[in-house]
């Protein structure tokens, strides 16, 4: 029987055991757990003696759409990849490496079983492609609900290093970023812009991919920790908003270099022209790139993958914040509760 002849099977037609039987074989290729899926809980080694943990949720029509105004349809692979990537990035932002993840799915009755299989494939593809080679999908939970929701919890190891916190930036440090800045926001704008996804050229399709399947630089977190980074954090809610969080946690001012910002914005000229947007607004306020923002000692050499974007200044009695070229700016960026 060919794929075109095969009847579409939906979640409501399967028992929990039958659905798990479609998922588990796809996850078994990542086999580093001491005890993986199948029992009431998994068993994961923690040779460092400490465990780094982070969790995040994607909910349909809040964090992703199954069908976008542009005509693009989010595949299970897209949602699985993004669910893995955003959590792997949080572990990376502590200077740690991921060791295991557990996944909780809430599925409406009419969800296609093949879409759920694709989600499992997307989780595995992200772990492999992003270089999280020591991470396994150790288990999770299935439930029925009115809207599709994916929650991933990732565990990680510091491998004997101290965690790098967002509160450690010091006056005189160099600011640097790893990964792209603004691409995911550009991709979101194209997804929301209207019909025509099928006609996008490679330069526009690449930023759509950056939104649907972000590419956090997972080697950069441990490298930054090894290089003596004073502060580190995931760029998930925009450079200004996340930078403000680091600045206030550290009691400093993060001063962004206008020339570096314009360089990042220049890469986004084509998608900005396509939707009539300001690319600098994406660089400053766009989220979900899942790169890294770091503060390094002034005399240190930036690790591979990092590029300078500014410097750290004293707060001079204030609570800290973000400036551009020495001029204070108000933080803006992604807010899950904004309307």
Strand content: 15-25%
- The span between the termini is 47 Å
The low-pLDDT segments are: 1-5
Shape: globular
Mean pLDDT: 91
Q: State the helicity in percent bands.
A: 25-40%
Question: Structural class per helix/strand content?
Answer: alpha+beta
What is the number of helical segments per DSSP (H or I, 4+ residues)? 10
**Helices and strands, in N-to-C order?**
HEHEHEEEHHHEHEHHHEEEE
The rounded Rg comes to: 21 Å
Q: Major sheet: size, sense and barrel closure?
A: 7 strands, mixed
**What's the number of extended β-strand segments?**
11
Molecular structure report:
With 339 residues, the chain is of the alpha+beta class. 32% of the residues lie in helices and 22% in strands. The chain contains 10 helices and 11 strands. The protein has helices spanning 16-27, 76-92, 113-129, 183-193, 202-212, 220-226, 239-250, 258-266, 269-275, 279-285; strands at residues 52-59, 97-107, 136-144, 149-157, 174-178, 231-235, 252-256, 291-296, 306-314, 321-324, 327-329. The protein has a 7-stranded mixed sheet with strand order 6-8-5-9-7-10-11. The protein has a 4-stranded mixed sheet with strand order 1-4-2-3. A hairpin with a 2-residue loop joins strand 10 and strand 11 (327-329). Helix 4 (183-193) packs across helix 5, helix 4 (183-193) packs parallel to helix 9 (269-275) and helix 4 packs across helix 10. It is globular.
Give keywords:
339 residues, alpha+beta, 7-stranded mixed β-sheet, 4-stranded mixed β-sheet, 32% helix, globular, disordered N terminus
